[in-house]
Each structure stands twice: as C-alpha cells, then as structure tokens.
Amino acid sequence: MQFGIFSVGDVTPDPTTGRTPTERDRIKAMVAIALKAEEVGLDVFATGEHHNPPFVPSSPTTMLGYIAAQTERLVLSTSTTLITTNDPVKIAEDFAMLQHLADGRMDLMMGRGNTGPVYPWFGQDIRQGINLAIENYALLHRLWREDVVNWEGKFRTPLQGFTSTPRPLDGVAPFVWHGSIRSPEIAEQAAYYGDGFFHNNIFWPADHTKRMVELYRSRYAHYGHGTAEQAIVGLGGQVFMRKNSQDAIREFRPYFDVAPVYGHGPSLEDFMDQTPLTVGSPQQVIEKTLAFRDYAGDYQRQLFLMDHAGLPLKTVLEQIDMLGEEVVPVLRKEFAAGRPAGVPDAPTHASLLAKKESEEVTVA
Hints:
This protein has helices at 23-39, 60-68, 88-101, 118-121, 129-145, 184-193, 206-222, 245-258, 268-274, 282-290, 292-296, 313-336, 349-363; strands at residues 2-7, 44-47, 75-78, 81-82, 108-111, 149-151, 159-162, 176-179, 196-199, 233-235, 239-241, 278-280, 301-305. The protein is of the alpha/beta class and 364 residues long. The longest helix has 24 residues, at 313-336. Keywords: Monooxygenase, Oxidoreductase. Residues 1-22, 339-364 are annotated as: Disordered. One of its GO terms (molecular function) is oxidoreductase activity.
C-alpha cells in the first residue's frame, strides 16, 4: 500500500498572522513538501492543477519534473489532471516526457476539477463536462497504446496518422487514476478501462464513499479485469496533528474556520464527526484512517492533504515528520495485517512492465 501527500496549491492568508505567501513562496513550499515526503519515507507526492487564483500549480509536469530531478524513490503524480479542458494530445506528450525524466516514477489522476470558469477559458462548455471526460480519455488511452492513431470525435479536430511523442517509456502507458467525489459516470469509466479509482475522501460521509467505491469495484469485475477485491482504489484525507489532541484542535481551528474550501460552514467538530477530517493526536489519525478500510475495503493508495488553508510551511513540514515517523509505519503494519493474498499492490512502472513482458511471453 502506498502513502503520500497531495496538495491543491492554494495561496491562502495565514489567519493567525495575516501574512499571504507570494506565488513564488507557495511554489517553492510545494517542492519542499515533496522533498520532505521522500525524506520521511512516504511513497507519493501529488499536485493539483488549477488555472486561477488563489492557486499556483498551473503546470503540474513542470513542477513534477523539477522534483523528479531531486528525488530517487518518490512516485510523482497529480491530484487532478484536467481531462476536460486539456487537449488529450498534450496530456499524452507531457506525461510521457515526465515518465522518461522520472525513470517511470510517475502516474496521474484524471478529473474534471471543481472550478467552473475554467471551461470557457479553454474553449469548452461545462455542461459537456462528463462527455468531455469520456471522449478525451478514450483518445488519450489510444495515444499511449497505438503508435499511429486515426481518430474523430465531437470536441476536437480529427487526427490522421498521428503519433504522439515521446512514446511511453518501455512501451508501458502511465498508470491512470480517475478521481471523482460525486460522479458515478467516472467510477464507471475507471472500471471500464481497468484503471484506478480515487475518491477524494475529504468532504463526504462514509456512506457516500462506500457507495462510490462499491460501484467501481462491481463494474471493474463486470468488465472482466478481476474480482471486485482486486480493483485499484485510492482515498484522500486531511489531518492535523499534535501530541495532545486539544492542542491540535486549538491550533488548527482558525485555519479551518476561514479555509477557502470548507470554512464558514459546519463547525470543526461537526466536520470531523461527519467526514474523514482528523484533527487530534497521531493515534487518533491512525484509528480513523484504519477505519477507512471498513467501508472502502482493502485499498492501494492513501494520500493526505497537509498544506491547505494558509498553514505555514514550518508547520506543514512538522506535520509530515509526524506522519512519516509516528503514523505511516503503524498504518503500513496494520493495513498489511489480514490483507487477503489476492489484493494487488498499487501499480508501479516496474509492475506494469513485468505484466507486459509476461503477456508477451504468453502470446509468443
């Protein structure tokens, strides 16, 4: 099982000091967070994609390529690649380039994003969001697997005899997660292709997450990719820790109360009760995260949001230290205990390459 960090890259004033980081500060902070993730033994760093203030990560592959040059183990990913408003040809080429630069230490998560105005900025209609996601990914899937593509669809100009470059490393397409909080069509899409399904397990109660994951698992089995238990599932989550839970709540409350995503709504206590948000001691984080398995089953990837809502970089790095030293080692051990033998590990370039070579030998 993989554990890691994801960031949405928001530029938010620190409510306790009034200081707002510059865009440069925030970009450099995301890099520092990724490097800290590798230092403490985490597996994954993922960045979002946004094209509007108050967010900075408009070019995920640029950032991830820079991080790749400074890391050795870390899997580099996205917490959203906008399949609806990016040209699938550009996605194919950008991420294949990253795959080569990172020696295969990468994957990506497709999503529609949560910023409505981005659609007209890139010449698209938000009312076509689901249709764009389905058609664009169908093309992207082919671009990575066919050397020459002839294609015609509704939302972009046709392709005739087109080859995207560079070709995927070792002839293996990057692994794709399809991320969705609320759309069953995306769970269906992930299942159809035998890809991963990532539920950003932050805002919604457990019963909603359970329904979405179960839909994906059942359809994964329906399409013949394996049993429901073998489907590839990832979950998000947000935590804030101090050794004493009351200290954690006292320190995090002002950040929660004005957070761009969930501030000015339910109280911190209500939000923790109704969603996976955990603010407390490391042991409380361990217990709540382990409970995700009760409704999502044995899964492959757990990513934590640590740097949202104006938290200063020093605090975030302290949080990652605690995560790596006190939380993740226990989670690894406990999640491994009783894990059925048939449940696969999270896909990596090495495992996908081994599978490809095995299939080629079988065919030969």
